[in-house]
Amino acid sequence: MRIAIGLASAMALAACGGSETGNSSTPAAPASPVAGAAAPAGTQWTEKVEKTAEGGFRMGNPDAPIKLIEYGSRTCGHCAAFANTGMEPLKAYVATGKVSFEFRDFLLNPIDLGAALLGQCAGPGPFFAIMDQMYEQQHTLLGNGPKEGDPFLQQVEAMAPAQRTAALAERFGYLAFVQQRGVPEAQARQCLGDQKAIDALVKGNEAAAKEYSIPGTPTFILNGKVLENTGTWPQVEAALKAAGA
């Protein structure tokens, strides 16, 4: 991964929002409502979060008949807009047991790698809370980045990949962000240097690009099919309703 001089302004734009542009497709007629399922006694489906074999984190009934997957970048403004407007109403659908929601990190730039590693560092339990707050503070975090002419850009260019990931995460404030949410610094730095996790993210992205031809972020997959021209909560909700949610 290379760091370009224009990183500070370009990182949140590259390939971001490609699946959202336009809304030319007409929503399908609603399907017959599907059956939900009660969560285990004393729990709610929104509290059940598991890491999947594909490297994502799934919230809800693992046997839900409607499975929604998002490929999202933590530096993408369109992804932040979806999270900030759509996550709470989406949880209402997840709570019924009809819908499960899985988030899979998609890397658009070098900052995404450190942000994803740290966002997953605390494990499944607090994953979505940390993700939501990371998106809420996206503007502030990205604002910490180096501007053109900053010596940091030249310094980070000369670093080994593992050092670069850690340096970027620290400079942009992602390291401090997870520390403030209960992840000890030693654990966070261990996550940033976890080569197995890095390889899994990269391979997962390559597999997703090959299987779904990811046009940009966010990209949504509903029951195995890419939702075209869909990147906002109203568009996603229409697709869920059309599937019987």
CATH architectural designation: 3-Layer(aba) Sandwich
Average pLDDT metric: 90
Number of helices: 11
**Physical arrangement of strands within the biggest beta sheet:** 1-2-4-3-5-6
Through-space gap between termini: 41 Å
> What overall form do the CA principal axes indicate?
globular
Q: CATH homologous superfamily - what is it?
A: Glutaredoxin
Order of helices and strands: HEEEHEHHHHHHHHEEH
Number of domains: 1
The top level CATH class name: Alpha Beta
Radius of gyration: 18 Å
Detail the poorly predicted runs: 1-15, 19-27
Helix/strand/pairing category: alpha+beta
- SS strand fraction: 5-15%
- The CATH topology is given as Glutaredoxin
**Strands, total number:** 6
Main sheet attributes: strand count, strand direction, barrel closure: 6 strands, mixed
Helix content: 40-55%
Descriptive overview:
There is one protein chain. With 245 residues, the chain is an alpha+beta fold. It contains eleven helices and six strands. The chain has helices spanning 7-10, 77-94, 110-119, 127-136, 138-142, 151-157, 161-172, 174-179, 185-192, 195-212, 233-242, and strands spanning 49-51, 57-59, 66-72, 99-105, 219-222, 225-226. A hairpin with a 2-residue loop joins β5 (219-222) and β6 (225-226). α3 packs across α7 (161-172). The longest helix has 18 residues, at 77-94. It is globular, with a radius of gyration of 18 Å.
